[in-house]
Description:
- By secondary structure, chain A is an all-alpha fold.
- Chain A contains 24 helices and 2 strands.
- Chain A has helices at 2-12, 14-22, 35-55, 65-75, 79-106, 115-137, 142-155, 162-170, 177-209, 224-249, 275-281, 289-310, 316-344, 346-369, 377-381, 384-395, 427-433, 454-461, 468-484, 491-496, 498-509, 538-546, 572-582, 592-596, and strands at 25-26, 222-223.
- By secondary structure, chain B is α+β, with helices and mostly antiparallel strands.
- In chain B, the strands form 3 sheets. Chain B has a 4-stranded antiparallel β-sheet with strand order 2-3-4-8, with no helix packed on it. Chain B has a 3-stranded antiparallel β-sheet with strand order 1-10-9, with no helix packed on it.
Amino acid sequence: xxxxxxxxxxxxxxxxxxxxxxxxxxxxxxxxxxxxxxxxxxxxxxxxxxxxxxxxxxxxxxxxxxxxxxxxxxxxxxxxxxxxxxxxxxxxxxxxxxxxxxxxxxxxxxxxxxxxxxxxxxxxxxxxxxxxxxxxxxxxxxxxxxxxxxxxxxxxxxxxxxxxxxxxxxxxxxxxxxxxxxxxxxxxxxxxxxxxxxxxxxxxxxxxxxxxxxxxxxxxxxxxxxxxxxxxxxxxxxxxxxxxxxxxxxxxxxxxxxxxxxxxxxxxxxxxxxxxxxxxxxxxxxxxxxxxxxxxxxxxxxxxxxxxxxxxxxxxxxxxxxxxxxxxxxxxxxxxxxxxxxxxxxxxxxxxxxxxxxxxxxxxxxxxxxxxxxxxxxxxxxxxxxxxxxxxxxxxxxxxxxxxxxxxxxxxxxxxxxxxxxxxxxxxxxxxxxxxxxxxxxxxxxxxxxxxxxxxxxxxxxxxxxxxxxxxxxxxxxxxxxxxxxxxxxxxxxxxxxxxxxxxxxxxxxxxxxxxxxxxxxxxxxxxxxxxxxxxxxxxxxxxxxxxxxxxxxxxxxxxxxxxxxxxxxxxxxxxxxxxxxxxxxxxxxxxxxxxx
Amino acid sequence: xxxxxxxxxxxxxxxxxxxxxxxxxxxxxxxxxxxxxxxxxxxxxxxxxxxxxxxxxxxxxxxxxxxxxxxxxxxxxxxxxxxxxxxxxxxxxxxxxxxxxxxxxxxxxxxxxxxxxxxxxxxxxxxxxxxxxxxxxxxxxxxxxxxxxxxxxxxxxxxxxxxxxxxxxxxxxxxxxxxxx
Lengths: 597, 181
């Protein structure tokens, strides 16, 4: 062994190199404040390792980026850990960068003769921020997609070269195949390569000029190994522990729903360390964004670059410290303001909740059906559970409600002028419809012109005066009518109550006599109310939504409800999605209990 | 003696410091490496499907004289996150043995997995990669062929009188035995 080492040393000089690396002088003794550079190097090493392994499984294209990340996260051994460590170490790096920079400036380590090394560090800072920005897009989820889109749109307002620069970055006029290819090449190739070169220079220059020690020295001189290495290692351990804690607490890194360029996402926010810029832009009225997005940040960066020169002046060093302190204070303030704004904004909250629901949902669908080659976004687009509330909020909620809200959870400003459709056609829903106390409420006909119509009059006069025996008959009618809908949630009770349903069907035509105004079981041209045959079923609901003014529904008496298909407001697919959602008919994963049977 | 003590202590403390520095410094690299290696090794865990019966063609399409014909096998395929139905996963040669009897051979050469051609003139199979030759029944023709076994016969069934169903499977190349891949 020893002879091999001697041979190696004679050929490479590695012993001297190692000795130089380890026995660097630490004047005044090892100190905790020197650890930041080492923790950053450690974090960078972690990013290189985890990044390379992620590369083994990542696939940069708009049909496969989200999908491969989903697969890493949910189907590969250790994948959630790998991605989690990469994700949270990236965040830790941004904090460590600030600490390192502050320490360097406070200790005066940026002043002559260390100006060049300060600039190396400054460039490294920008490169790490660029890595954060490019990495945010790679999972191609809604959050990353829309947030990065904002960032690249800001690039377009750069004076003179903006639009060209933007095209250069996103690989074309719009987001597409080359956007991901470019971002990935930047994130995994160009930027890390530049970082390696700059970091080598940074460390070389640091060794050349040595540590900047504050006088008077606190203790006896020592060497890097083992005193400072021990402190550095402990600090790295603390960084790692924090990262692992965040991975566990956050169940790995977040993965939103797959990016959908046709589905605007109002909860799009940059990652928290860029929130300050996001907030800053809010204060610049239209046409002046270039000041907030480009001019002011560039000026601040130029001042930072010039700090080594200011440091030579009297009070210059103090100015630098105050300047940095004020800048980071401002960043922190803007970040807090941005978070507060969002916390107080109900539509942000709703969009965020919808996004979280969608992200969970797409996992369920992918696990159940596999992902089509056209991409996971198609699973989402065809899912009533996800699309129903959005379509309802957009097309129905100006008159109708769903459980009191717009389907997504937001309160609607316009007064409610049509029925609340949550639980539509279920036994409970019909029971309340036929209840004198509820039929004329705004949750049923109250807001419509039918508030004084025949049906309301019938319920308020005749049903209100029903004898107990008639009430029992009405109960059977409700059960029978609700069974027409064949709701998934009622399949079991419908099967159980088959005899009541049969009796109820007779009563609809007989004693309770719904057929006086409604068709039931067979077409009835005399009917004035909506057809009750298959009431609430998928087919019934689709044809109702398509044209409520059809003679078999409201005919000419139709209130303000649009003929969604006939007026080409919605296509058949969208109408089907609304119908499925109102009927609560969407894919449900088997529960663990039923899977065990 | 009094002068020896501090040096000994110092030496011990120094050793402890070095040991701690080395251990912690090494330990912090373990979690990222371990997660990475786990992902690297993930494919080893994956097992090939057992092979299902798939309809590949019709009996009536096979020549009476026993000349093999090539058919593409279409079935459901899972590729990492994608699930695709009715996509090509391979091909088989079907040969009529009797009025209601069919033999199926996987087109993949048992030597290295190239697609084997059927040469009509010689009524035998030739692998275009390394020149293995196989008789029309799939057995090795020329003992000097690089293939270690004959072409892989697959289980067949005739359903509903005319449909040819094959239990499609691939086997490890280069082995003398048929080992499901």
